[in-house]
Write the structure tokens for this entry.
Amino acid sequence: MGATVKAVSSNGTYSFTKPNRDSITLLAGLGVEGDVHAGVTVKHRSRVAQDPTQPNLRQVHLIHEELFAEVARAGFAVSPGDLGENITTSGIDLLGLPVDTLLHIGAEAVVEVTGLRNPCRQIDAFRSGLLKQVVGRDEDGNVVRKAGIMSIVVHGGEVRPGDPIRAELPAEPHRPLERV
């Protein structure tokens, strides 16, 4: 079985988690229709505080459901939408994709991968100790972020659970994901 959408989530108000929906609509250049993080410029509070005119490279947050199984082995119960993602995926190595990968989702939607989500302390407020499960260090001491990826909407469309996902890699050389 190929990569698929497991769940979709959005929230019109600031909160850490996002309720699951039957579908979400992606709007080109903006993000998820009705979601608090949709917009041409940054909407995440920490980014707005730095510079509210920055382009919004975090319009759509995707996270792999395989992470939920990983953190469950450490005793943490996490479900789709709990970590604030818009699209929960299955069967695709999101963290291994290069910058500028196009993800074709469902019949029409296309998002362009911009980078890694930079998990914050709110994750520990949600589940104490969870932040250490989604951010760590590799054997060389480099920071490893596992809380999903961020993207911008290139082509809008409706996204539903069960929709297929197809990755279109950019031309080489590939640039590895960094935090955005």
Summary: The helical segments are 45-50, 66-73, 122-126, 131-134. The radius of gyration is 15 Å. DSSP finds four helices and 13 strands in the chain. The mean pLDDT is 95.
